[in-house]
Design goal:
three-stranded antiparallel sheet, two-stranded parallel ribbon, alpha+beta, 2 domains, Rossmann fold, 15% strand, 5 strands
């Protein structure tokens, strides 16, 4: 025979559990809604971030390509164009430098000789420095630059001077090539066999550092 009292107690118990379950369900639904909103916001932020990164990459690439193109055209006097190709491979971005001539693309490393690599490498170094915020000190020390340029060494030196004037940096150049002195504002001739070139370069660096410290 059923006990009415037990049935009532069981009913009350089940009702309490039901109310607790419904309350917990509402909280979980509310939490799920908040999570969905956060996911939506994160997706939007991610999209904006990707768009911003693409614009920054495009602006940086355009600037680099323009400066390097100017450098190689001024030295080689041909309608070369410098191009950076970005590719995504296995979640990593790779960058390949190319030189375009008459619609054909070449790898400067494999097909265009040391002189082209010399000019591109120098122009890239200067361009990346110019994009730093804040910039480091505007003094570059070059030891025997453009040694692979041969007959184009003087044109390379003129290009160096143009870049230094345009981007506002100074160059300390150590070389045995007499052609390079033609574009220098000041020339020091050192003829003393008691010092190696490395020792002389270190002495010059010390002089520059002392001058910089005095300005502070």
């Amino acid at each position: 025979m059923l006990d009415i009292y037990q049935i009532q107690e069981e009913y009350k118990k089940q009702k309490v559990e039901k109310n607790l379950f419904e309350k917990d369900l509402k909280q979980k639904r509310r939490s799920l809604t908040i999570t969905d909103i956060k996911i939506s916001d994160l997706d939007e932020v991610h999209s904006v971030w990707i768009e911003l990164a693409d614009k920054i990459q495009m602006n940086a690439r355009t600037h680099i390509e323009a400066v390097v193109t100017m450098a190689i055209q001024s030295v080689f006097e041909k309608a070369y164009k410098f191009k950076l190709v970005f590719e995504e491979k296995r979640n990593n971005i790779t960058c390949t430098p190319l030189v375009i001539e008459d619609g054909y693309e070449y790898s400067p490393k494999d097909q265009m000789g040391g002189g082209m690599i010399d000019i591109i490498g120098f122009a890239l170094r200067i361009t990346l420095w110019s994009m730093r915020v804040p910039r480091s000190r505007n003094i570059f020390i070059l030891d025997e630059p453009f040694r692979f340029c041969g007959d184009l060494t003087l044109k390379a030196a003129v290009m160096l001077k143009k870049l230094s004037e345009k981007l506002k940096f100074q160059v300390l150049l150590v070389t045995h090539n007499t052609e390079l002195k033609e574009v220098c504002d000041k020339v020091w001739v050192i003829n003393n066999r008691r010092f190696s070139r490395l020792t002389i370069l270190n002495k010059v660096i010390d002089i520059i550092i002392r001058k910089i410290r005095r300005r502070k």
